[in-house]
């Protein structure tokens, strides 16, 4: 009986997105209808298109709990638990984790925040605001999943000093789906992740520079590394906001070994408060395989209210020399070597 009472209270709070004793319950529900060309191969060998319900086209579905407690002297305890799920079937995402999007606890004061748990990596933190298309499904994370990556077993510091941002992250095992979560006794380098970032966000300018390094996730590959250097900036000019960015990638870890350079540029325009229009180009120069795929994409959102939006997105990915970039990511519902057109129209609701 007591359990039912607590569940009823939680649902009541969630329905209004309200705070109680420093705890906020929140979430996002997003779904769309999507068309994709060259999404598969039929029995006769011909390329097939698909029309389907698509989960999280504008923003990934989630619900979560976020809280803080004033400890006095300017010090606060902070926490966040955030779960990702598929709205079409109710299945948990992020490998079936209950709180796969975020799960951390920490302390915060005027010098910044120190948190421990499963957290967004520093590339995610910086480029969520520097993607011209705002992390729609046809956007920056489609070119590299690390732009929306998380690190298990991580310690993160982030500070903001009058617009100057500094951050650092260390993970003792960034992928807990492998044996021991990458934390192997006597094998210090297995699954480690190191990352630092600097940036500036004040007035119309937002700019960040991030370095990220991951070690191999097995004893045999712990000496191998995957390295990224990402830089980006945006500058608001009236109702317009142009974006530019670059990422250097180098890995000798088996399975993900490659060398490439990613370039992107885009523009956001808000003619009125209720309308957001964005467009961008993402070009990936994969020198290790002599492939040069690119993605052209645009999206639009109409704000029906502060919490509900109608949206649409269109994308075109061009492949050659065997590359397999789909509009939603490499190897995502696309026939390798084919180009792809994607269109999605949907609704999102925030609570």
Description:
With 351 residues, the protein is mainly beta. The protein has a single domain (24-350), classed as Porin. Helix content is 6%, strand content 55%. The protein has two helices and 20 strands. The protein has helices at residues 2-16, 122-127; strands at 19-20, 23-41, 47-55, 62-72, 75-84, 102-109, 112-120, 150-161, 164-171, 193-202, 205-215, 225-235, 240-251, 258-269, 275-286, 294-303, 308-318, 325-326, 329-330, 340-350. The strands form two sheets. The chain has a 16-stranded antiparallel beta barrel. β4 and β5 form a beta hairpin. The longest helix is centred in the first third of the chain and has 15 residues, at 2-16. The model is unreliable at 1-20 (pLDDT under 50).
């Amino acid at each position: 009986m007591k359990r039912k009472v607590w569940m009823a209270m939680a649902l009541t709070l969630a329905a209004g997105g309200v705070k109680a004793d420093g705890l906020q319950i929140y979430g996002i529900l997003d779904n769309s209808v999507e068309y994709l060309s060259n999404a598969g191969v039929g029995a006769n060998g011909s390329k097939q298109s698909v029309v389907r319900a698509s989960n999280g086209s504008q923003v990934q579905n989630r619900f979560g709990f976020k809280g803080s407690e004033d400890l006095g002297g300017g010090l606060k305890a902070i926490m966040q638990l955030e779960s990702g799920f598929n709205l079409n079937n109710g299945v948990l995402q992020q490998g079936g984790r209950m709180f796969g999007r975020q799960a951390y606890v920490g302390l915060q004061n005027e010098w910044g925040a120190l948190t421990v748990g499963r957290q967004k990596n520093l590339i995610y933190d910086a480029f969520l605001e520097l993607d011209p298309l705002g992390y729609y499904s046809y956007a920056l994370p489609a070119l590299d999943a690390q732009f929306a990556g998380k690190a298990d077993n991580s310690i993160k510091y982030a500070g903001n000093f009058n617009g100057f941002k500094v951050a650092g992250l260390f993970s003792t095992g960034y992928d807990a789906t492998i044996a021991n979560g990458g934390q192997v006794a006597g094998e210090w380098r297995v699954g480690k992740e190191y990352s630092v970032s600097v940036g500036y966000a004040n007035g119309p300018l937002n700019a960040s520079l991030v370095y990220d390094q991951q070690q191999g996730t097995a004893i045999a590959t712990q000496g191998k590394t995957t390295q990224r250097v990402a830089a980006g900036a945006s500058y608001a000019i009236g109702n317009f906001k142009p974006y530019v960015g670059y990422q250097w990638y180098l890995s000798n870890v088996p399975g993900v070994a490659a060398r490439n350079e990613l370039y992107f540029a885009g523009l956001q325009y808000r003619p009125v408060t209720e309308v957001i229009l964005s467009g961008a180009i993402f070009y990936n120069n994969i020198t290790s395989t002599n492939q040069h795929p690119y993605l052209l994409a645009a999206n639009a959102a109409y704000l029906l209210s502060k919490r509900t939006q109608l949206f649409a997105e269109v994308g075109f990915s061009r492949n050659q020399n065997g590359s397999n970039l789909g509009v939603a990511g490499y190897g995502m519902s696309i026939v390798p070597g084919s180009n792809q057109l994607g269109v999605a129209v949907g609704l999102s609701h925030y609570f």
